[in-house]
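Handout, section 3.2

Students often ask what a structure token actually looks like in practice. Rather than define it abstractly, here is a full record for Antitoxin Xre/MbcA/ParS-like toxin-binding domain-containing protein. The first block is the sequence as you would receive it.
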Amino acid sequence: MEPAGLEPATAWGQSSSARATKVQYLQVLHAEHAPSGSRAGCCRFHGRYRSCGHSTGASARMTTMEQVHRLAVSEEIAVVAQSLQETLGQKLTAFAVGIKDPKAIGKYATGRQPRADTEARLRDLYRVTRLLLSEETPSTVRAWMIGANPQLNDEAPIEALHERRTAPVMRAAEAFVLGG
């Protein structure tokens, strides 16, 4: 989907008005696709921000963000819980999703069904974790989760997730994966 009021150019041309149109078009795309406060672009025209879904003429392959989202919604909850347990451990996973008993994570990993709210929070945590694992080791992911994060005003991502603030954590994870 293209930004409202601007059409993509198939050939940008060399005139100053064509260059101005291209710059305006790219700025609108960047504003629509980049996380709040990000200076990264959303595709090869805008920089290295990889989660943009609009086409740049290349193949319509799924982006990392789309793959992570698809995984988070399609995996069985037992697989989600098992992966989180292996990467973060039961205590951190339980804390992030607001569960008092860390052993419940192990029960979910073996097939017990969590409440809908807990399942949604597990899937959100899994989405963040899978994004980080696309570029980092499990030990780095764990350290990232518990460490102070400048994009979260030096709060640990695990604390923000505990308080149900998934969107800023996801943006911080995207920036980290991209080297920001």
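Discussion prompt for tutorial groups: Residues 68 and 127 are 6 Å apart (CA to CA). How would you have guessed this from the sequence alone?
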